[in-house]
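Need residues for this backbone.
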């Protein structure tokens, strides 16, 4: 509804002080022409919206203007009460603060809405951990948080994937939790990179401030970085037929294989499917692990290598039987 959108524009400008037409259009999922019409409507209604021209221009409210349109609807309150990841809150050291803030929010809810929203944590629970947690070492996490908030430079020792350790001075811009893994987003030599926190062997605050890039947006950077990483991943596609007895296991092991599509079962019950792996080696080991329950159709080279690998396993056990 347009009325809701106009209120949203006012609240956005109060919170962010200045936003461009493009930013407002993206946030509210409308066209830039719609934003211009909305601004005309707000101005006509007496809301002091100002347009600043130039490279760093945008829309803003007249200084010190504040609206009282802050009443929350029941649905909006429910979104604030949704339980975040307790592991992430604990990592950040704010789990107790979150619990206190939640109690204060519950206490401030008008009586008619309390019954509708107070039980949401008992209906929806969010758990970002994996089934089998690996021990996580984040010795430097507290220092990283301090550096991000205080905009202080950091000297870090970082262990790369090949186990080599490098030293680098970085400008920490933010922290991102991907699943239960934390990443430090930092600038170095005018390049912004992601560093896995568990690989930061040592970190030390440098008593030198830095200026954050004015156009840097952490969620946008992470989304773009993630898409680049995904598009750079190798792909090895395999056409197979799968025994119906292992379909559930195939669907459950999504961490190791991507099921591109499955066709309807054939007369014998077996299911044609397309699977995708990172490498041929992964495909070979995965398929062989299911024994005679997966039959490779294509590529032919994989059929040959799996057969050779299976023959090698049989030969190994025959040799052991002879030795015994």
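Answer:
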């Amino acid at each position: 509804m347009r009325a809701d959108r106009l209120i949203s524009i006012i609240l956005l400008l109060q919170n962010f002080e200045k936003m461009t037409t493009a930013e407002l259009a993206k946030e509210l999922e409308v066209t830039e022409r719609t934003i211009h019409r909305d601004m005309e409507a707000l101005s006509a209604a007496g809301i002091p919206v100002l347009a600043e021209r130039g490279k760093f221009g945008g829309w803003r409210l007249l200084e010190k203007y504040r609206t009282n349109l802050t009443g929350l609807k029941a649905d909006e309150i429910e979104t604030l009460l949704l339980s975040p990841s307790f592991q992430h809150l604990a990592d950040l050291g704010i789990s107790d603060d979150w619990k206190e803030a939640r109690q204060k929010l519950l206490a401030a809810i008008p009586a008619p809405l309390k019954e509708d929203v107070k039980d949401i944590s008992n209906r929806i629970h969010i758990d970002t951990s994996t089934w089998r947690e690996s021990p996580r070492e984040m010795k430097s996490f507290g220092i990283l948080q301090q550096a991000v908030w205080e905009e202080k430079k950091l000297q870090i020792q970082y262990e790369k994937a090949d186990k080599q350790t490098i030293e680098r001075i970085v400008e920490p811009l933010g922290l991102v939790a991907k699943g239960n893994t934390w990443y430090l987003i930092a600038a170095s030599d005018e390049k912004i990179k992601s560093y896995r926190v568990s690989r930061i062997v040592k970190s030390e605050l440098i008593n030198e401030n830095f200026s954050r890039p004015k156009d840097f947006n952490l969620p946008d950077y992470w989304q773009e970085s993630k898409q680049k990483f995904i598009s750079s991943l190798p792909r090895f596609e395999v056409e197979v037929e799968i025994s119906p007895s292992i379909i559930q296991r195939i669907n459950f092991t999504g961490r190791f294989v991507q099921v591109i599509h499955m066709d309807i079962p054939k007369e014998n019950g077996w299911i044609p499917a397309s699977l995708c792996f990172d490498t041929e080696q992964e495909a070979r080991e995965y398929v062989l692990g299911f024994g005679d329950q997966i039959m490779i159709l294509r590529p032919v080279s994989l059929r040959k290598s799996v057969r050779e690998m299976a023959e090698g396993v049989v030969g190994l056990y025959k040799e052991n039987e002879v030795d015994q």
